[in-house]
Amino acid sequence: MDKKKKQKTKQGGVNRREFMKKSAIAVGTAMTSGLMLPGMVKNASAAKRDYILIGRPNPGTGPLASFGEGTPWVDDRVLAEINKDGGIYIKEFGKKVPVKVKVVDTESNPTKAGEIASRLIVKDKIDLMVFYHTPDTVNPVSGMVERYKIPGISLDSPLEPWLEGGPYKWTFHAFWSVEKDIVPNYIGMWEKVKTNKVVGILMPNDPDGVAWSAVFKKVLKPKGYKVIDLGRFPYFNKDFSTHINRWKKEKVEILLGNMIPPDFTTAWR
């Protein structure tokens, strides 16, 4: 909780783009901490070359681009810090080894994310995979990491949809849980405002939407909330009038959504 408070304080003093970049630095440090995991690069390809190569499937374009826009900036900053004194000391090599990162655009496409991950492992012979930004990136890349038995660090994807692809041995994941972290925070906010406790759900047909809606419906009903859920919708939906009219009919006073930016913009208008 203390960390979240500090992040909110920082956000108030900068614009959105700068905040996204600064917040991502904390995530970028996973590259350094991950390389220190015991045995992670012991038998890696770095032994055959003079640097460690990290693969970075990243949604640089497409509907998830707002998540991945800070990645090149963060990578440049982190790599400059890591490599300024020669890189990371690897005990098995008996020396410091510089770190390089190869970022490849997934175009926000889960299928392409998996294909890119496979190519980075098989063709580029990466030593470590670092990947994040929603289940659309994290889940398919985790699958490839497990398939080829190469270490991977993933973030920025809720725990519940990520666990659906398990069990995991090679992927080290760090992020919050919808049920244990998000739900209590949302209900805590709602309880501070007097409402009729009627909640309208607006979530897409993707791993996030499926997991979030299921968890919230399970938790909300026993707490006295009425949930209006018309089901999952496809990406780039052009018309939300059916949802809106139903919300009006049911007198919805709380809207709960988790969607890609283009869909949010359409629904909000």
UniProtKB/TrEMBL annotation:
A Pfam family: Peripla_BP_6
Keyword hit for Glycosyltransferase: no
Residue span, Leucine-binding protein domain: 54-268
PROSITE patterns associated with the record: TAT
Keyword Signal annotated: yes
Keyword line: Signal
Stored InterPro entries: BCAA_transport, Leu-bd, Peripla_BP_I, TAT_signal, TAT_signal_bac_arc
Name of the protein this chain belongs to: Leucine-binding protein domain-containing protein
Source species of the chain: marine sediment metagenome
